[in-house]
C-alpha cells in the first residue's frame, strides 16, 4: 500500500486530531469528489460548533508510465490511500478555526490550518506537495555521487521528476483601520532534470536537484474613509545543495546554480476624491549573487560579485466625468540596474583560443509604459471603449538599444438585446526603435541581416469577438473567436510573419431538475514563416511552421436516483497538439526537406457514482482513465548520433487507470 506521510504532514494531522478536511475547489482538486447536494441542509445558516466533512479515500493505481502521475496524482503502482476534508469551527465569542486538506498521502496534495478571532488575528499553517513527472525509468551511463559523475557500462536508472514540498506559517493582526501580517515559507525541491555538458563531446545526463528556497514576507496597511496605504517587504533566499559536478578525468564540467537572494520593499496607496480614484505604487529591490566561480585559465575573478538593483513605479487615475463617460490613465516605469562585476576575460572562438581580451558587459534595462483609455455609454446596453498604449524599452549593450511599441484599440459592448451579450475588440500595433546594429560588442557571430523577433520592427493587427447567448432558460452558450497577424516587414533573416487564430465554445445545459450537462471545444492555429541563410549571407532557405492545438470536452451529471440517494456522472476530455515544419530553398537537400514532426494527444475519462448512505454519510466510487501519446522527431537513442550521448527517446505511449473508493462523513 502506498501511503506517503512525512513529518510535516503527520504534525498537521496530529494538530487537527480526528478531524481532517479538504477543499475540492482549490488548485487541481477534483470538484466531483464529493456531491453533498442530497444530504446536506440547503437552508442552514452559519452556526457555532463544527461543520464540514471528512473523506477517506482508497483505491488501486495502474499508471503504466510515470508521466501518468501528473493526471492521477501518483505514479505508484498498486493500492493507494489518502485523506481529504473541509472542517470549520466557530464559537459564540468569535473564535474560529478551519482545516482543509486534499489527497494527503499522495504525491500531490495540500493541508491548511487557520485559527484566530474574527476581525482581530489569525494564525495559519500551510503544507503543499507538488510532483511533476517528465519521464520514468530513464537510463544514463553516468552515476552521480557527491559531485562526481562516474561513467559505467551499467546504466543508472532514475525518473525525470521534480518533487516540491512547501511548508509555511503566517500570522496576521488587525483591528479597524490597520492590519499587519508576517509569513515565512520554505520549499524543498528534489529529483532529477535533464541537462548537458561538453567534455569533449555533447552528453545529456540527469542533473540531480536538491535545493531550498526560503521566503519571508511582512507588511502593514492603514485605511481611512476614502484612502488606504500599504507597506510591504518580500525576501527570498535560494540555497543549492548540489555542488559543481566533475568527471574522474576532468573537474567542474557542470556549474551548479548559484545561491542567491532577492529583497523588495514596496509602498502603495489609493485615494478617492468624489468620482475620481487615484492609486500609486513604489517598489525598490536588490538581487544578490556572490558564489565562488569555477576557476579556469584566464579567469581573474574568484567569486562573482553579482548585484542588480531594481526600481518600479506606477501611478493610475480613473474618473467618472459624468454618467456616460469614464476616462483613465496610467504610467508604469521600471528600471533594472546591473551593478555586477565587470572584467576583461580571454575570448574563445569556436575552435581555439583567440588570444583577444573582451570585457563582460552587465546589461541594464529600463521600461516605461503609458496608457490612456475612455469608456462611453452610447445608450442603455451600448458602450464603446477606446485606448492608446505605448511601451518604451531601453537596453544597454544590445543589438537594438531602444524599442517602442504603440497600440491603438477599440471595443464595443452590446447588452441591450434579450439574453445576448456581444463584445467586439480590434487593435492595431506598431513596433519600431533605434537603428538595429549587429556589431562586435554584442553579436559578432550573427548574420548582419538577422533580426531577433522581440527586437525587430513589427506591425500587429488583431480582432476578437465574444458572444454570450442564453437560447432558452436551460441552455447557455459562450463563444470567443480571435485572429491576429504579425508582419515583420523589415526582417530579411528571421521571423517574417506569424498568424494566430482560433475559437473557444462553451455550452451548458440543464436538461431537467436532476440532469445537467456541459460541453466545450477550442482550437488554435499558429502559422509562422521564417527565413535563414546557410551561407551566412542572403537568405537561401525558408521554413513554414504550422502549429495546431485542439481541446474538446463533455460531461453529464444525473442525480435524484434511488430516492434522491444516488448521483451518476462522467467527464470526457480530449486534447491534441501538432507541429509541422516544412523547409524549402537552395540550401536544403532533399533528404532534409522537413524536420521531424511533433504531435501529442490525450484522452481522459472520469466516471463516478455518489451514494448517500444517510444524511451524514456517503460513498463515492470513481474510475479515471488516461490515454496519452506523443512523439518528437528531435528525440533519439542514447548513441544514435556518433559523438552525442542522450538520455534516450523520452516519448510517451501509455494507458493509465485509477479506481478510487471514498467514504465521506458530514459533521453537521
UniProtKB/TrEMBL annotation:
InterPro entries: Decahaem-assoc_OM_MtrB/PioB (IPR020016)
Transmembrane segments: none
Matches recorded under Pfam families: MtrB_PioB
Superkingdom as given in the UniProt entry: Bacteria
The entry's keywords: Signal
Signal peptide (UniProt feature, chain positions): 1-21
Name of the protein in its database record: MtrB/PioB family decaheme-associated outer membrane protein
Organism: Shewanella hanedai
Amino acid at each position: 500500500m502506498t501511503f506517503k506521510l512525512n513529518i510535516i504532514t503527520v504534525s498537521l494531522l496530529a494538530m487537527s486530531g480526528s478531524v481532517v478536511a479538504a477543499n475540492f475547489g482549490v488548485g487541481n482538486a477534483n470538484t466531483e469528489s464529493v456531491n453533498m447536494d442530497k444530504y446536506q441542509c440547503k437552508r442552514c445558516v452559519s452556526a457555532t460548533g463544527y461543520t464540514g466533512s471528512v473523506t477517506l479515500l482508497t483505491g488501486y493505481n495502474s499508471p503504466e508510465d510515470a508521466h501518468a502521475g501528473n493526471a492521477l496524482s501518483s505514479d505508484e503502482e498498486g493500492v493507494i490511500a489518502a485523506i481529504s476534508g473541509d472542517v470549520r469551527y466557530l464559537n459564540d465569542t468569535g473564535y474560529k478555526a478551519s482545516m482543509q486538506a486534499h489527497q494527503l498521502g499522495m504525491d500531490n496534495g495540500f493541508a491548511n490550518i487557520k485559527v484566530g478571532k474574527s476581525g482581530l488575528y489569525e494564525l495559519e499553517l500551510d503544507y503543499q506537495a507538488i510532483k511533476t513527472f517528465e519521464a520514468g525509468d530513464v537510463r544514463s551511463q553516468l552515476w552521480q555521487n557527491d559531485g562526481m559523475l562516474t561513467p559505467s557500462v551499467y546504466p543508472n536508472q532514475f525518473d525525470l521528476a521534480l518533487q516540491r514540498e512547501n511548508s509555511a506559517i503566517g500570522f496576521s493582526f488587525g483591528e479597524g483601520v490597520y492590519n499587519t501580517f508576517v509569513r515565512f515559507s520554505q520549499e524543498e525541491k528534489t529529483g532529477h532534470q535533464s541537462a548537458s555538458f561538453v567534455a569533449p563531446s555533447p552528453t545529456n545526463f540527469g542533473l540531480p536537484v536538491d535545493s531550498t528556497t526560503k521566503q519571508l514576507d511582512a507588511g502593514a496597511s492603514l485605511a481611512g474613509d476614502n484612502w488606504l496605504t500599504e507597506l510591504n517587504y518580500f525576501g527570498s533566499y535560494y540555497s543549492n545543495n548540489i555542488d559543481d559536478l566533475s568527471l574522474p578525468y576532468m573537474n567542474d564540467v557542470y556549474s551548479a546554480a548559484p545561491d542567491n537572494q532577492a529583497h523588495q520593499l514596496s509602498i502603495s496607496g489609493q485615494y478617492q476624491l468624489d468620482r475620481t480614484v487615484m492609486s500609486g505604487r513604489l517598489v525598490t529591490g536588490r538581487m544578490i549573487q556572490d558564489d565562488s566561480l569555477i576557476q579556469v585559465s584566464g579567469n581573474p575573478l574568484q567569486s562573482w560579485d553579482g548585484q542588480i538593483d531594481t526600481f518600479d513605479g506606477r501611478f493610475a487615475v480613473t474618473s467618472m466625468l459624468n454618467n456616460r463617460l469614464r476616462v483613465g490613465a496610467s504610467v508604469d516605469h521600471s528600471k533594472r540596474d546591473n551593478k555586477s562585476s565587470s572584467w576583461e576575460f580571454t575570448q574563445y572562438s569556436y575552435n581555439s583560443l583567440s588570444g583577444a581580451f573582451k570585457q563582460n558587459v552587465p546589461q541594464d534595462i529600463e521600461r516605461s509604459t503609458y496608457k490612456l483609455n475612455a469608456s462611453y455609454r452610447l445608450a442603455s446596453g451600448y458602450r464603446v471603449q477606446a485606448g492608446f498604449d505605448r511601451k518604451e524599452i531601453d537596453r544597454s549593450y544590445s543589438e537594438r538599444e531602444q524599442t517602442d511599441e504603440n497600440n491603438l484599440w477599440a471595443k464595443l459592448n452590446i447588452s441591450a438585446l434579450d439574453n445576448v451579450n456581444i463584445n467586439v475588440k480590434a487593435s492595431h500595433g506598431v513596433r519600431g526603435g533605434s537603428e538595429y546594429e549587429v556589431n562586435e560588442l554584442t553579436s559578432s557571430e550573427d548574420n548582419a541581416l538577422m533580426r531577433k523577433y522581440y527586437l525587430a520592427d513589427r506591425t500587429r493587427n488583431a480582432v476578437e469577438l465574444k458572444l454570450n447567448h442564453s437560447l432558452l432558460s436551460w441552455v447557455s452558450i459562450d463563444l470567443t473567436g480571435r485572429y491576429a497577424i504579425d508582419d515583420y516587414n523589415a526582417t530579411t533573416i528571421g521571423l517574417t510573419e506569424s498568424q494566430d487564430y482560433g475559437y473557444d465554445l462553451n455550452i451548458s445545459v440543464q436538461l431537467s431538475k436532476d440532469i445537467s450537462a456541459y460541453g466545450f471545444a477550442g482550437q488554435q492555429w499558429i502559422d509562422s514563416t521564417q527565413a535563414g541563410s546557410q551561407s551566412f549571407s542572403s537568405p537561401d532557405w525558408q521554413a513554414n511552421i504550422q502549429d495546431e492545438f485542439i481541446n474538446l470536452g463533455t460531461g453529464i451529471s444525473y442525480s435524484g436516483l434511488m430516492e434522491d440517494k444516488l448521483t451518476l456522472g462522467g467527464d470526457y476530455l480530449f486534447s491534441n497538439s501538432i507541429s509541422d515544419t516544412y523547409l524549402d530553398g537552395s540550401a536544403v537537400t532533399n533528404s532534409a526537406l522537413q524536420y521531424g514532426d511533433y504531435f501529442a494527444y490525450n484522452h481522459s475519462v472520469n466516471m463516478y457514482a455518489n451514494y448517500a448512505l444517510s444524511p451524514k454519510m456517503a460513498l463515492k466510487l470513481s474510475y479515471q482513465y488516461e490515454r496519452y501519446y506523443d512523439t518528437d522527431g528531435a528525440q533519439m537513442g542514447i548513441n544514435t548520433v556518433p559523438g552525442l550521448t542522450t538520455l534516450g527517446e523520452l516519448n510517451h505511449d501509455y494507458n493509465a487507470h485509477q479506481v478510487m473508493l471514498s467514504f465521506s462523513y458530514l459533521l453537521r
